[in-house]
Amino acid sequence: KPLLEVKDLKAVIAETGQEILKGVNLVVNEGEVHAIMGKNGSGKSTFSKVLVGHPHYEVTGGSVIFKGENLLDMEPEDRSLAGLFMSFQSPVEIPGVSNSDFLNMAYNARRRKLALPELGPIEFYAYLFPKLELVNMKSDFLNRNVNEGFSGGERKRNEILQLAVLEADLSVLDEIDSGLDVDALQDVAKAVNGLLTPKKSVLMVTHYRRLLEFIKPAFVHIMEDGRIIKTGDIEIVSLLEKEGYKAMSTS
Ligand code: ADP
Ligand code: MG
Ligand code: MG
């Protein structure tokens, strides 16, 4: 069953009108893991941000259907309530809000949307602790303000915790692997693999193949100049290693 259907998606930088996405086509079904790879500057982050409704970009053509609804019509917050999660390349600091409160609020917002009862702090902790263990995070992180004074590695780990807690239907991970050592990568993989059910899907955006050794995607897409120019299985990653992105190019 299709979860995300992207058809001929075109987008420009709002401020300058420069076209970055030049017709992206992609279908992600429930339960599937997809990876988008491509050279730096090919439009991978732009695509992820357009999906979550980042204001720097303006959609100029095409359509995005998420769970049967027009995603492009929704406010960013409603996209997240609808079950779309995105990890950001540079996550924001939220002064004055502790991590656990933030996670509890975000989780409850989603539960309200699903017409499920909200979890109070004690119930939420019971839900949260196994997740902390899953991503190898110390519990004192929970009392710190969101991302405030976190090291690069701690921010990443925090993103992974958010991913594990929110259990979104589609999690978009933009270079969640950048700057991570192998131990942290394995924790990312555990969190992602622990999240996968026959209904939940993951779209990983990466410049490197390393992550794909830990989280095996069924589909790998190569992006170039604002389009997906090739789709295959994990085998095309080996081809990529051997022959480079040039071998994929159609132009
Ligand atoms: P990738 O994630 O594949 O490295 P990006 O989506 O970050 O690629 O960028 C695609 C192209 O769009 C690059 O040439 C980048 O410089 C440009 N770009 C993206 N966002 C902006 C922006 N807000 N302002 C100016 N240029 C941008
Ligand atoms: Mg980049
Ligand atoms: Mg990028």
Give structural notes.
The chain has 251 residues and is of the alpha/beta class. The chain has a single domain, classed as 3-Layer(aba) Sandwich (Rossmann fold). Helices cover 35% and strands 29% of the residues. The protein is built from 8 helices and 12 strands. It has a 6-stranded mixed β-sheet with strand order 6-9-10-3-11-12, sandwiched between helices. A hairpin with a 2-residue loop joins β4 and β5. α5 packs parallel to α6 (182-195). The radius of gyration is 18 Å and the shape is globular. It binds adenosine-5'-diphosphate (ADP) and magnesium ion (2 copies). Adenosine-5'-diphosphate (ADP) binds at residues 13, 20, 38, 40-46, 56. One of its GO terms (molecular function) is ATP binding. This is ABC transporter domain-containing protein. Residues 4-250 form the ABC transporter domain.
Number of β-strand runs:
12
State the secondary-structure class. alpha/beta
Mean pLDDT: 89
* Whole-angstrom Rg: 18 Å
Residue ranges: pLDDT <50 for 5 or more in a row? none
For CATH, the homologous superfamily is named as P-loop containing nucleotide triphosphate hydrolases
Question: Could you give a quick summary of the protein structure above?
Answer:
The protein has 8 helices and 12 strands. The strands form 3 sheets. Strands 6-9-10-3-11-12 form a 6-stranded mixed β-sheet, sandwiched between helices. A 4-stranded antiparallel β-sheet has the order 2-1-4-5. Helix content is 35%, strand content 29%.
